[in-house]
Amino acid sequence: MRIAARFNGTCRLCQTKVRKGEEVDFESGTGITSCPVCREFPESGVEVELCAQITQIKHQSERSNWGVVKARVTEVIRSDCTDEQAHLTAPGRLYSVAGPVGIPVEGEESIVRGRLILDPKWGMQIKLSAPLESRGITSLPALRAYLDMAPNIGPARTEEIIRLGKHDLSRVYALLGPDWEQLVKVKGITRGGAEEIHIWYERTLANRGAIQFLSAMELPQNIQRAALAEWRANTEAVIRRDPFALMRLSGCGFKTADAVATHVGIGHSDPRRVAAAVLHILQRAAEDGHTYLARDIISGQTRAPRFSATESAVNDVGLSGGELSGALVHALELAPVKIVEHDGDVALESLRSAEARIADALMAIDSNDVPNLQLPENISTLFGGLTPAPEQANACRVIAERGVVVLTGGPGTGKTQTTRAVIQLLHDNGLTVFSVAPTGRAALRLAELTGHPAATIHRQIAIKPGVAPDEFTLGCDAIVCDESSMIDVELAAQLLAVIDTERPVRLVFVGDVDQLPPVGAGAFFKDLIDSERVPVVRLTQIFRQAGDSPIPHIARAFNEGAMPSLERSDGFAFINTAREDAEEAAQLAQDTVVMAATKWLIEKERGGAKSIADIAVVAPQR
């Protein structure tokens, strides 16, 4: 409602002082919602360049330099405001400033360049057109405002600190920094309080140079913070010495570090870059599931299956095979993350170490003298009264005698039933048993099918409160791990690290080596079987689906390299999508499978699906 103001007031949107009699928009309960200045303010805003002091950090993005801060105007450098609007940029005005704020510091002064706009909901604010440019703290008034924000100081102690520093900015900074213990001379500041002020100063102004350097490199916000946490005031020196040290930080890969390297003048064939390139190739190889690479694969001289990410990494670095092959000596010395060579193969030290720890732990556990378990006279009692296959009964006998055992078999061969019997055998002998699986779904399924509690490996090995990490061990007599084919080497090493190898412990790894490879690097389960160092019980007799489903038989034929029967039956159909063009064949296979599955769901009304609208088709990529 537009009325003549009945009294002096302030406009809610632009904070302009309104005099009695001026025409304003008024809402009951809200007050003056617009004034003549608001109504005449350009919709596109006006360009301003101000010096302002950061008073509050409202929001900062983790991945970019975008954020929102509160800033109080201290000086007008340039403004396109009219004379009637000039008060909008007057010193003392407080605004929300949104845009590329970088890593702002409360209390410091910054140059703010952008557009002053009038948002109908949030009122006057500044949208940055350029990143904030820090001016630091260049005056005693600015320093007073900065110290007022420090913990447990306040105006009176601020003045005493400034007097203690003899009204000299550099001396006051020294009191906040290396000479912080002198702050106890200020009345009311204890040693603990002085240390708290010092820590606050280091978190804000002491790293200002490093913050400006990182912002200039246009690094993502999360990497900037990680670098500051790691190297603090030395950040710029560390990165200029070797930009690829950034690859030690979580979330920073070769391409990001390489862009910084180019910015600071590191050459294309610089040994530091070449060493980082080898590291990059090994890291991408780990994404392909490999724990090491041969020299000729690193140099790109050999193409091998299942090396898509590795080959992509070789292309990323843009170096010749000769440069990469000759770089290994440098890589072993200069790589930001340790690389090792063994028998001509090159690996990340972390993965090589994990494999070595796994081997040592398994051999130690298996070499311990475990007491033989007491088997029931009728072994079928472990299988709920059903007569087990010879292989299933043998699994129980082997586990009764050995410390480490592998139980493997294809679909429908009775792994779950045998696992249930093994767990029952262990419990019947009075052992404390932990049942684990790599994923939550697998752990839930294990618990439901065996009738005993189960947990994920991560949850089971989590260090308990009040226990030192190097003292934590699993207090159990046996561990049964299902879906072991999904365990990568790092997870296996973590699991084995918390097992007390000095005491008798039984380990049973259950899984199908032909299914569900690990997401991470390594093939722990397959390598354990191939090592032939621990007993392996293979289940081959098919029980599932009343013995009439062809799927387990077809799966076995494929695994054995034989041609299965492709005759159509209930639950199985072979659809020939062979075409000369491989991409066309792949697309046809995809479309045919989706259409066939959709039709089957609707015809059988599976899951309540009665029409195409009841079915969602999902894919991991667009």
Describe it:
The protein is an alpha/beta fold. It contains 23 helices and 20 strands. The strands form five sheets. It has a six-stranded parallel beta sheet with strand order 17-16-18-19-15-20, sandwiched between helices. The chain has a five-stranded mixed β-barrel with strand order 6-7-8-10-9. The longest helix has 23 residues. The chain is elongated. The two termini are about 50 Å apart. The model has no long low-confidence stretch (mean pLDDT about 85).
Short note summarizing the structure:
The protein has about 625 residues and is an alpha/beta fold. The protein is about 40% helix and about 20% strand.
Class from secondary-structure proportions: alpha/beta
Spatial sequence of strands, sheet with the most strands: 17-16-18-19-15-20
Measured between the Cα atoms of the first and last residue, the distance is 51 Å
CA radius of gyration is 34 Å
The stretches of 5 or more residues where confidence is low (pLDDT under 50) are: none
pLDDT averaged residue by residue? 83
- Number of helices, counting only DSSP H or I runs of 4 residues or more: 23
Chain oligomer state: single chain
Shape: elongated
